[in-house]
Write a structure and sequence with these properties.
heterodimer, A: alpha/beta, six-stranded mixed β-sheet, four-stranded antiparallel β-sheet, B: mainly alpha, 10 helices, about 85% helix
Chain lengths: ~290, ~260
C-alpha cells in the first residue's frame, strides 16, 4: 500500500489492504464527498475513503479538518452537498425517516464530549438504548449494563450522576453506552481525549477487542497517533477536507511523506500550519 | 438613501424571518402531537414532567394565590364599604380569581417558573449534544424529550390555576371574614349565588388550558430551536418568558371577548 497525497483519490485507490476476499467487503464508503455548513466555508472537498467490514480504521488530521463531519455524515446528521455516503451499499442521504432510524439502530457513536444524559445516572445512561430498543426484562438489562460498565472499569460508578464524573470517566461511560447494543458499526469521536495513560491503554485495547470479538466495523477519529498505531488496521490522514495520505500501520510508520511525518512526530513546521490563516504579523501590529 | 434601504431590508428580513419561524413552530406543534404516543404509552415519562412542571411550581402558585386573594379582599373592602356592599366581597374575590386572575397570574407564574426551566433544559440538552446523541441512537428527541414536557405543562397549569383560585378565595376569607369581620355566611353565600359553574368556572378552566398549550409550546419550541451556546440558551429562556407573558395577555383579551361579551356574568 502506497501513500497517496493526490487530492483526487479514487475510492479504489483508498481501499485498505485486505487479507482475504471476505474481509474486503466494503461496509462504509465515501465517494467524492463534499460538505460545508455555508457555501463560503467547505469542510469536506471531494473526499473518498473506504472502510471494509470488520476493520478498525482511524481518521486523523488537525483540528477543524472535517474528521467529526465524516462521522456526522455517516449517521445522517448532515447530508453531503455532493458525492455519496454509502453504508452497506445504501446511500445515507437517500434514506427515508424509517430507513434512517433502522440504519441508526446498527450504529453506536461516541460523541466528542460524551453527550451523557445529565438527568440520568451512569447506569440509566448505559441502559437507555437497551430500554428504548429492546423488550429485555429489567434483570437482564441490569446484568448487561454492569458488564458494559465493568468493561470500562466503572461498575462501581453506576449510581453516580454525570455531573459527579471526571471528563475521562464520562468518556468511558459514553463508550459503554456506545457499545450497549453491540452495534454493527462503531463510530468513535476522540475516544482518548482526557483519559489518563492507564485508562487510555485499556480503552484502546477495549475498542480493538470489541471490534474483533463482536465482528464490528469501527471508525476512530482521533489525534492520538501513538495509541492509534497500536490498535488500528488502517489510517486515513485528512487535511483541508481531503484525504492527503493513507496506509496500514507499517506503511505509516515507515512513511517519509512530510504530512505523515509532521503528524506522527508532532513537528511544529511542515505542510500543516499551526496558525489559522491571517495577515502578516507586522500588518496586524502596525 | 442607503440608510433607508438598509432599514427597509432589515425590516423585511425580520418580517419574513418571523413568518418562517411561526411556520416552523406550527410544524413543530404538529410533530409534537404526532409523536405524543410515547408519552401516553409510558406514563412514567409524563409523571416525571408533571412533577417537574407542576409539583415543583406548587409553592410559588399557592403562596401567590393566597396573597393575591388577601390583597383583593383588602382593596375590594375599600370600594365596597363606600356603597354598603361589603357582604358582596365573596362574590368579588371569587369572580375576579376564577374568571381572570387565576388563569392569568398562574399562567404568568408558570411561564416564569416552569416554562423557563423547560426551555433551559431542552436548550442545554441541545448544546451538550444530548439531543443529537438520542437521534443517533434512533430515538426521536421530539417523542422522548419534547412531547412529555409539552403534555406535562398542558396538564399541570389548569390544575395549578384551580389551586391558585382556591387559595386566593381562602386568602380573601382570611382577610374579609377573620380580619375585617364580614359575616362568614354572607361571604360564602354571595359567592355560591353569583359564581356560575359553566359561565365562570368552566370558562376559567378553558382559559387556563389555552394558556397551558401556548406556554408549553413556546417553552419547548424555544428550547429546541435555541442556538446551542450559553448565550443562545439564555436568549431562548428570556424569549420564553417574554413571549409567553405577551401571549397570555393577548389570548386573555381574545378569550374574554368571546366568553363574556354581552354581560350576563
Amino acid at each position: 500500500m502506497t501513500l497517496d497525497s493526490d487530492s483526487s483519490l479514487t475510492a479504489a485507490a483508498s481501499t485498505p489492504n485486505c487479507a482475504s476476499a471476505a474481509t474486503c467487503e466494503t461496509l462504509v464508503e465515501l465517494k467524492n464527498v463534499s460538505f460545508g455548513y455555508t457555501k463560503a466555508r467547505q469542510i469536506l472537498s471531494g473526499i473518498s475513503l473506504v472502510v471494509p467490514r470488520g476493520k478498525l480504521v482511524a481518521v486523523m488530521g488537525g483540528s477543524g479538518c472535517g474528521k467529526t463531519t465524516i462521522l456526522r455524515l455517516l449517521c445522517g446528521q448532515h447530508k453531503a452537498t455532493s458525492g455519496e455516503v454509502l453504508v452497506g451499499g445504501q446511500s445515507v442521504a437517500a434514506m427515508n425517516h424509517d430507513q434512517m432510524y433502522a440504519h441508526r439502530r446498527k450504529l453506536g457513536m461516541l460523541f466528542q464530549f460524551g453527550a451523557l444524559f445529565t438527568d440520568q445516572t451512569v447506569f440509566e445512561n448505559v441502559a437507555f438504548p437497551m430500554r428504548e430498543h429492546t423488550e429485555l426484562p429489567e434483570e437482564i438489562i441490569h446484568d448487561l449494563v454492569l458488564m458494559k460498565l465493568n468493561a470500562v472499569g466503572l461498575r462501581g460508578a453506576a449510581k453516580l450522576k454525570p455531573s459527579e464524573l471526571s471528563g475521562g470517566m464520562a468518556r468511558r461511560v459514553a463508550l459503554a453506552r456506545t457499545i450497549a447494543l453491540d452495534p454493527q458499526i462503531a463510530l468513535y469521536d476522540e475516544p482518548f481525549a482526557g483519559l489518563d495513560p492507564i485508562s487510555l491503554s485499556v480503552v484502546g485495547q477495549l475498542i480493538r477487542r470489541l471490534n474483533d470479538a463482536l465482528g464490528m466495523t469501527s471508525i476512530l477519529v482521533t489525534h492520538d497517533i501513538a495509541e492509534s498505531l497500536k490498535i488500528v488496521d488502517y489510517i486515513y490522514f485528512v487535511s483541508e477536507g481531503k484525504v492527503v495520505a493513507h496506509g496500514d500501520v507499517a506503511t505509516i510508520k515507515a512513511s517519509t511523506d512530510p504530512f505523515v511525518r509532521q503528524f506522527v512526530d508532532g513537528q511544529p513546521d511542515g505542510p500543516v500550519g499551526f496558525h489559522y490563516p491571517a495577515k502578516a504579523l507586522a500588518e496586524d501590529f502596525a | 438613501m442607503n440608510g433607508i434601504l438598509r432599514v427597509l431590508t432589515d425590516l423585511g428580513g425580520s418580517v419574513t424571518g418571523g413568518i418562517a419561524r411561526l411556520g416552523f413552530a406550527a410544524r413543530f406543534l404538529m410533530a409534537v402531537l404526532r409523536l405524543s404516543g410515547t408519552t401516553f404509552a409510558r406514563p412514567q415519562l409524563l409523571l416525571r414532567e408533571i412533577y417537574q412542571a407542576g409539583v415543583l411550581s406548587l409553592i410559588i402558585i399557592l403562596m401567590s394565590g393566597l396573597f393575591i386573594g388577601m390583597v383583593l379582599a383588602l382593596q375590594g373592602y375599600e370600594t365596597l364599604v363606600r356603597f354598603g356592599a361589603t357582604e358582596s366581597m365573596g362574590m368579588l374575590v371569587a369572580l375576579s380569581l376564577v374568571r381572570e386572575l387565576g388563569p392569568v397570574v398562574a399562567g404568568l407564574l408558570f411561564a416564569s417558573r416552569a416554562g423557563s426551566a423547560m426551555t433551559a433544559e431542552i436548550g442545554l440538552m441541545k448544546t451538550t449534544e444530548q439531543l443529537a446523541a438520542m437521534e443517533v441512537m434512533a430515538v426521536d428527541p421530539i417523542a422522548r424529550v419534547v412531547a412529555p414536557r409539552f403534555w406535562g405543562g398542558v396538564i399541570s397549569l389548569p390544575l395549578l390555576a384551580a389551586l391558585f383560585s382556591t387559595l386566593g378565595i381562602y386568602g380573601g376569607y382570611l382577610v374579609g371574614v377573620r380580619l375585617i369581620g364580614i359575616d362568614s355566611g354572607a361571604y360564602w353565600g354571595q359567592m355560591a349565588a353569583a359564581v356560575d359553574w359553566r359561565h365562570d368556572i368552566l370558562n376559567g378552566v378553558i382559559k387556563s388550558v389555552v394558556f397551558a398549550v401556548a406556554i408549553s409550546l413556546i417553552a419547548v419550541f424555544e428550547g429546541y430551536d435555541a442556538t446551542p451556546t450559553a448565550e443562545g440558551v439564555s436568549a431562548a429562556t428570556t424569549r420564553t418568558v417574554v413571549t409567553s407573558a405577551l401571549a397570555i395577555l393577548a389570548l386573555d383579551f381574545v378569550l374574554t371577548v368571546l366568553m363574556f361579551r354581552g354581560g350576563g356574568g
